Structure formats: structure tokens, C-alpha cells
DUF481 domain-containing protein
Amino acid sequence: MLPALLALGLALTAAAQPSDLPTAGPDSSWRDLAPRLYVQDETWSDMDFIKTELTFVNYVRDRTEADVQLTITSQTTGDGGSEYCLNFIGLGSFHDINSVLKHTTAPAATPDETRKALVDNIRRGLVPYVARTGLRDALSIEFTPPAAAAPVTDPWRNWVFAFSLNAFGSGDQTYSSIYYDLSPEVRRVTETEKLAFEGGVSTNQRRFVLDTTVVTALSRSYYGRADYGRKLSNHVALGARFRYNTSDYSNLRCGLTLGPKLEYDIVPYSEYVRHKVYLRLTPTVQYANYFDTTLYNRLSEYLVENEAVLGAALTRSWGSVELSAEGSHYLHDITKNRLSVYGSVSLRVIAGLSVSFSGGYSFIHDQLALRKDVASEEERLLRLRELATGYSYWTSVRLTYTFGSVFSNIVNPIF
């Protein structure tokens, strides 16, 4: 049925305006003919998976640069599943092609099943647009590009600039809180390299009224980071990282970190959206300048730290699993170390029954910046400064069981 529908869609759109079809010259790249797609995603879809599965369009960040706008939204169905709505809007020379496609997923659908269904429906919706280009003869159910992919002309050369401001406030008669953070970001991602710069400032002010006493808690932090990575093969990447941060909560007036990064992935990078097993090594040189004398009688110091991360992730039709372990220690004293483990599992146990849980635990023995003086009761209760601890943890569990009608096509948006 699907091949017939695709063939019909191609025939109808190709016959509509045959004179408008661009064709590839001997020196043209097929990507120059591909439609430009802008995706407005309201569902936190797996965009990396979409881009690796649908390679016959050019993805753009700005709607004004697009030939097609795709808006993805979803609603909860009566049985707890989801109805996805894909709204395709033609722009420019494609302004007369508009469509809406919908599909539903079961309550027990795994992330892999959900994203595969989404990709299949997006592929169907893009057929009329591709059929109006010079790629119509190359389009089939399984797309094979007529030539090796060539980069589309980009005056920004893959550079992207972003700026964000977040603010939040709340309060009542005895309490008020104001929080904001400001962060600019610059990044560049190509097939072989990744470069990112980011900085920011955050302020958190809380005010407590206790009878006739008013207590104000104010904390500020500033940070800057730069990361560079280059793919050396389909398994190995090399890079570098830089960090700057200051935090009165952590007693750090100025913290600088610089070092190389090495990554080895057992699974080829080309398959990372489905599974990955990686090892990352990051030795760094650090400089720390403190607001107050530390527990080890230091106001400043130079440090060398070794860090290693071992991780794995897997996404299949039955669910997904992600595990990682991170260890670090200082070279001058290996007893000053930290070990953190993280795990996340989402499983469909049986039809209608799904369970997901995640958590992390850290063994902490590397708090070199702790203040020497004893924290007051106010500082302890309000968490105004970092306190000594041997561990930290977090966890979450979710169990869902759905039964009854197997039909999930009805959507009722009232209330």
C-alpha cells in the first residue's frame, strides 16, 4: 500500500508543474536541488536520528531560509498514548503544497518505536516537495543519493550564535526568591570538527522573614567554557577543553582548567544514534584562587587532575539503557578523588506495562575548596556555602500500567 501511495504522490506533483522542475547540470550537487527544511519541534523529538534517517533534504535553522516548514506537536490520547500531528507548510515556490499528517503511538511504545514512526510519517509528508525538484527521479522508498553528498553553500560557514536570558521569581509574605541567568553561546559543528564557546552569569537571591528577623541569602556564579574536538577516524576523536568559573558558594574566586581530551568509541560514530560504548580521558592543569582560606590552609594553588569516563547507551524496540562511570583524582594526592556512577533504564516489560528508573551516586573525597572556618547554623540551614560530605545521590522511578480498550485514535482536547 505504501509504495502505491508514494508513486501516486510523485505522479500527481510531478505532473502539476513540469516546467518548474530544476535539473542537475554536470557540475551540480544533488544537495543544491534538495528542499530546505525547517523543523519546529514541540515534542523534544530525537533530531539527530531524524537527520541521519532522512538525508534527502537540507536542514536549516531559520524559517526564512526554508522551502518547507514542519511543525511537530502531540496530544495525549484517551488510553494514555500520543497522537502526533505533522503540519507541512510550503514556502516560496512550494507555497501551494500544504498537508497535515497524523499518527498515534501506544502508551507502551518505546522511544525507538516512537522515533521510527515519526520518521516514517515525515518521509511520507516530504514526498510532494521532493517530487517538485530535480531529485524526483532518484526518489524511492529507500533513497539513494546520485552522488556523494556535497556541502550546501553557507555564508556563515557553520557558525551558530545564541543568547539566552532566564529569570524566575516567587514569594509570599515571609519569603521571596529571585533567580536569573544570562548565557551567550557560539558553536560550529562540521562532519569532522566540533567547536563551542559558552559563558554565563547566574544570581540567586532568597529573602526570609522570621518574626522580626530578616535573613537574605545571595549567591552568584560566573563561568566560561570552550571545547574543541576533531574526529580522527570513525572510532577516535581528539580535542581540548578550557574552563573558567567563580562561585562564592564554592569559595572559588577564580578557577581555570585546561587540558586535552581523547575519546575512543567501540561502536562507529555513524551508529551512535542507536548505540555507543565509549571511553574518554581528560588530564587537566588547574589554577584555583579562593575567597577564604581553605581547610588545607590554601588561598591559591596549582593542581593536576586526571579524569576518565566510561559510558554506554543502547536504544532498541524494547526500551533504552544508558550507563556511565566517571572517576577523577589529583596527581599530588590520589586520595583526593571522586567516583560517580549514573544509570537510566526504560523498559517495556509486557504489553501495557512499562518501567523506567534512573539515578546517580558519587563518592566524594576531593573538596579542596572547603572553607577552614566553621559554618554557622544559618549557612548550614540555608545552604549558603558548600559543606563537607562523603557522598551525594539522586534517584527516580516510574511505573506505568495501562489496560482496557486498545483503540487510541480519539483525541478530545477539552479542559
